[in-house]
TrEMBL record, chain A:
Pfam (any one): BPD_transp_1
Keyword match Transmembrane: yes
Keywords: Amino-acid transport, Cell membrane, Membrane, Transmembrane, Transmembrane helix, Transport
Family, as annotated: Belongs to the binding-protein-dependent transport system permease family. HisMQ subfamily.
Source lineage: Bacteria, Pseudomonadati, Pseudomonadota, Alphaproteobacteria, Hyphomicrobiales
Subcellular location: Cell inner membrane; Cell membrane
Protein name: Amino acid ABC transporter permease
Recorded superkingdom: Bacteria
Residue intervals of the ABC transmembrane type-1 domain: 21-212
GO CC annotations on file: ATP-binding cassette (ABC) transporter complex
Molecular functions per Gene Ontology: transmembrane transporter activity
Biological function: Part of the binding-protein-dependent transport system for glutamine; probably responsible for the translocation of the substrate across the membrane.
Membrane-crossing segments per the record: 25-47, 59-79, 85-106, 137-157, 185-205
GO BP terms, alphabetized: amino acid transport
UniProtKB/TrEMBL annotation, chain B:
Cell location: Cell inner membrane; Cell membrane
Organism taxonomic ancestry: Bacteria, Pseudomonadati, Pseudomonadota, Alphaproteobacteria, Hyphomicrobiales
Keywords assigned by UniProt, alphabetized: Cell membrane, Membrane, Transmembrane, Transmembrane helix, Transport
Organism the protein comes from: Phyllobacterium phragmitis
Cellular component terms (Gene Ontology): ATP-binding cassette (ABC) transporter complex
Chain ranges passing through the membrane: 20-44, 56-79, 187-208
Family statement: Belongs to the binding-protein-dependent transport system permease family. HisMQ subfamily.
PROSITE patterns: ABC_TM1 (PS50928)
Main localization (coarse): membrane
Biological processes annotated in GO: amino acid transport
SUPFAM superfamilies: MetI-like
Name assigned to this protein: Amino acid ABC transporter permease
Membrane topology: Multi-pass membrane protein
Limits of the ABC transmembrane type-1 domain: 20-208
C-alpha cells in the first residue's frame, strides 16, 4: 500500500514543481497565442471563394485532426534537424502545440462566423457595406461572443496536451513528476502532485469558461437542443 | 543515400505492421469496453442515486482535468504499489478504457438531457417502469444527439492511444521512435507513421461529419 507516501519529499521538490508549473503556464499562453494566429489565418483562407486558398487550408485542418499530436511533435522534433533547422526542445514543443491547436481554433472560429444568422449579412449588404465593413462591424463582433467559451475549452485541451512535451524533455510540470519518480523512485508522490497541479489549472480555466458564458449572456453552452 | 534509407525502412516493415496491429488492438478493446462502461456511467449519472451521480461526476471531472500521459503514469506506476501487478499492455488498456468511458459518459448525458421532458412524462403516464422509459423512450431519441460526437470520440481514442508508447508499448508511434534511431530521417519516418493514423482516422472523421449533417437535418434544424 501507499503507507510510505512522503509529503516531505513532495515538499523538498516543491520548487521544482513550481518551476514546472510556471513553465507549463507560460508555454501554454504562448502556444495559445500562436494557435489563435494560425487559426485566424486558416479560417480566413477557408472562407475565401478562391479554391487555391480554401483547399490547402482544409487539407491542413484535416491532416492535423486525423493524426495524433505526439506524432506531429516527433515529426517536428526528429524532422526539423534533418532540414538543417536546429531549435531548442521548448521551441519545437510550442511550435507543435500552436500548429496543432491552430487547426481546431480555425474550426471554432468558422463555426462562430457561420452561426451568424443570414439576415444579418443580408441586412448589411442592403445597407451598402463593403465586405470588410460587414466583417468588422457586423459579423466578427457577434461571432467573437460565441467563440469565447469553445476557445477556452480548446485552451483546456491544450494545457493538458502540453504534458506531451515532457517526452521530448522540456522541463515542464509533468517532467518535474518524472524527475521525482526516477530520482527517488517515488512515482506516486511525483505524479499525484503533478495531477493536482493540472487539476488546479483545469478548474481555473473551466471557471473562466462558465463565467465568460455568463458575462456574454450565453446560456450554459452544453446542450444544443 | 535516400535509397539506403528506403531499404532500411523496408526492413522495418514487419515491425511497423506489429505496431499498427498493437494500435488497432488497443483502440478496439478500449472502444468496446469504453463505450459499454461510458453508456452505463452516463445512464447512472442521470438516473442513479444522488450519491452515485455525484461520485461519477467527480471522477469524470478528475479524468477530464488531467493529461492522459499523467493518468497512464499513475496507473502504470502506482497500481503495482497497491499490490496489483500489471504489465504495460494491461495498464494501457485500463487507462484508455477509463478515459474513453469518461468522455462517452459526458456525451451520453448531453444526449439524454436533449430529450424533451414531455417524452419522459408521457412515458411515465403510460405506466412504463424507469428502465423501460430509459430503454424504449429516452435512449433511442438520445442516440440522434449522441452518435456524431461518439464517432468523433473514437477518433480521439485512436489518437490518444499513441500516448501509451510512453510506457514502452510497441504501438505505431513507438515503432516510429524505434526506427528513427536507426534511420536518421525523422521527416520520412514520422510522415509514414502519420499516414498510418490518417488512413484509420480520416474515414471516421468524414463519417462523423456526415452523421452530424444527417442528424441535424432530421432534427429540423436549418444549417446555414
Amino acid at each position: 500500500m501507499l503507507e510510505n507516501f512522503s509529503f516531505r519529499t513532495i515538499g523538498e521538490y516543491l520548487p521544482l514543481f513550481g518551476q514546472g508549473l510556471v513553465t507549463t503556464v507560460w508555454l501554454s499562453v504562448i502556444s495559445f497565442a500562436g494557435a489563435l494566429l494560425v487559426g485566424i489565418l486558416l479560417c480566413a483562407m477557408n472562407l475565401q471563394r478562391s479554391r487555391a486558398l480554401r483547399v490547402p487550408a482544409k487539407a491542413y485542418i484535416d491532416v492535423v485532426r486525423a493524426t495524433p499530436l505526439l506524432v506531429q511533435l516527433y515529426f517536428l522534433y526528429f524532422g526539423l534537424p534533418r532540414l538543417g533547422i536546429i531549435l531548442p526542445e521548448l521551441v519545437v514543443g510550442v511550435l507543435a502545440l500552436s500548429l496543432n491547436s491552430g487547426a481546431y481554433v480555425a474550426e471554432i472560429i468558422r463555426a462562430g462566423i457561420l452561426s451568424i444568422p443570414r439576415g444579418q449579412v443580408e441586412a448589411s449588404v442592403a445597407s451598402g457595406m463593403s465586405y470588410l465593413q460587414r466583417m468588422r462591424l457586423v459579423i466578427l463582433p457577434q461571432a467573437f461572443k460565441v467563440t469565447i467559451p469553445p476557445l477556452l475549452g480548446q485552451a483546456i485541451v491544450m494545457v493538458k496536451d502540453s504534458a506531451l512535451l515532457s517526452l521530448i524533455s522540456v522541463a515542464e510540470l509533468t517532467r518535474a513528476g518524472q524527475l521525482l519518480a526516477s530520482d527517488r523512485f517515488m512515482p506516486a508522490e511525483g505524479f499525484i502532485t503533478v495531477a493536482a497541479f493540472y487539476l488546479m489549472l483545469y478548474y481555473c480555466l473551466k471557471g473562466l469558461a462558465v463565467l465568460s458564458g455568463r458575462w456574454l449572456g450565453l446560456g450554459p453552452a452544453r446542450s444544443r437542443a | 543515400m535516400i535509397w539506403q534509407q528506403l531499404e532500411s525502412l523496408a526492413g522495418s516493415y514487419p515491425l511497423a505492421m506489429r505496431g499498427l496491429g498493437m494500435t488497432v488492438v488497443l483502440s478496439l478493446i478500449a472502444l468496446v469496453f469504453g463505450t459499454l462502461i461510458g453508456f452505463g456511467l452516463g445512464i447512472l449519472r442521470i438516473g442513479g442515486s444522488r450519491v452515485l451521480s455525484t461520485v461519477i461526476g467527480a471522477w469524470v471531472d478528475l479524468i477530464r482535468g488531467t493529461p492522459f500521459l499523467v493518468q497512464i503514469f499513475l496507473i502504470f506506476f502506482i497500481l503495482p504499489e497497491l499490490g496489483i501487478k500489471l504489465d504495460a499492455f494491461t495498464a494501457g488498456i485500463i487507462a484508455l478504457t477509463n478515459l474513453n468511458a469518461c468522455f462517452i459518459c459526458e456525451i451520453v448525458v448531453a444526449g439524454i438531457q436533449s430529450v424533451p421532458k414531455g417524452q419522459v412524462e408521457a412515458a411515465l403516464a403510460s405506466g412504463l417502469s424507469k428502465w423501460q422509459r430509459m430503454r424504449q423512450v429516452v435512449l433511442p431519441q438520445a442516440m440522434r444527439v449522441v452518435l456524431p460526437p461518439l464517432v468523433g470520440q473514437y477518433v480521439l481514442l485512436i489518437k490518444d492511444s499513441s500516448v501509451v508508447s510512453a510506457i514502452g508499448l510497441t504501438d505505431l508511434t513507438r515503432v516510429g521512435w524505434l526506427v528513427v534511431q536507426r534511420v536518421p530521417n525523422g521527416l520520412l519516418v514520422f510522415f509514414l507513421v502519420g499516414v498510418g493514423y490518417f488512413v484509420v482516422c480520416y474515414p471516421l472523421i468524414l463519417l462523423a461529419r456526415r452523421l452530424e449533417k444527417r442528424m441535424s437535418a432530421a432534427h429540423g434544424e436549418v444549417q446555414l
